[in-house]
Amino acid sequence: MRQIEQNVNRISELHSRSLNNMDEASSAQAHAQLDQMAEETSRLTNATKNRIRNLDAQTARLPEGGEKNVRKTQIGVQKNAFKELVQKYVRVESEYKSKTRARAERQYRIVNPQATPQEVKAAIEDDNGQQIFSQALLNSNRHGEARGALREVQTRHEELRKIEQTMTELAQLFQEIDTLIVEQGEQIGQIENSAMVAETDMKQGTEHTTKAVTSARKARKKRIM
């Protein structure tokens, strides 16, 4: 999981580069690195999820006892650590989404300063956003800036689409981790209940034994008398 954390930190750095780069070459390089890092991180998170599931399955086959309980505790620690990593990744993507949207809005207003919030939203989010933007470009008297802004918004539109896809995958992964944690909690509860039952049985057994010993002693005294 250390590699996942390093990747998330690297993705955060690349987000900053993507937002701050002004020339197209640097921006394209940052986006290519982002795509590669996101793909690698997705493979790592899925592999980690599957590894935890396999550990759960292996532990479930162990006989009840101290070793099984220790293994369950260790797996629980890994699940919680994994969940925190996914939460961090979600925060990184959410922040990038907000900043990317804000930058795209600024670029659109270069072309159409009088645009309403609804027009800006449509230009950035809709699949027909490029058509909307091109129409605004025709009506603009700032063609030099506007063409650069058009390319910028096209790039940000694609970025927003990728961010939405990543966040959807992370939401599903987060739900799966939560399910694993809940299942383990139920298993631990069953173990604790079994331990309590065993302890109760032991106490009852001890009480019965004590009563039996006492009764035997009384009976022996009566015979002696």
From TrEMBL:
Annotated T-SNARE coiled-coil homology domain residues: 150-212
Stretches the record annotates as Disordered: 202-225
Gene Ontology CC annotations of this record: endomembrane system; plasma membrane; SNARE complex
Record's bilayer topology term: Single-pass type IV membrane protein
Name recorded for this polypeptide: t-SNARE
Family, per entry: Belongs to the syntaxin family.
InterPro entries associated with the record: SNARE, Syntaxin, Syntaxin_N, T_SNARE_dom
Xref: Gene3D superfamilies: 1.20.58.70
Pfam families with a match to the protein in the record: Syntaxin
Keywords of this entry: Coiled coil, Membrane, Transmembrane, Transmembrane helix
Localization per record: Membrane
Biological source species: Tilletiopsis washingtonensis
Molecular functions per Gene Ontology: SNAP receptor activity; SNARE binding
Taxonomic lineage from the root: Eukaryota, Fungi, Dikarya, Basidiomycota, Ustilaginomycotina
A single GO BP: vesicle fusion
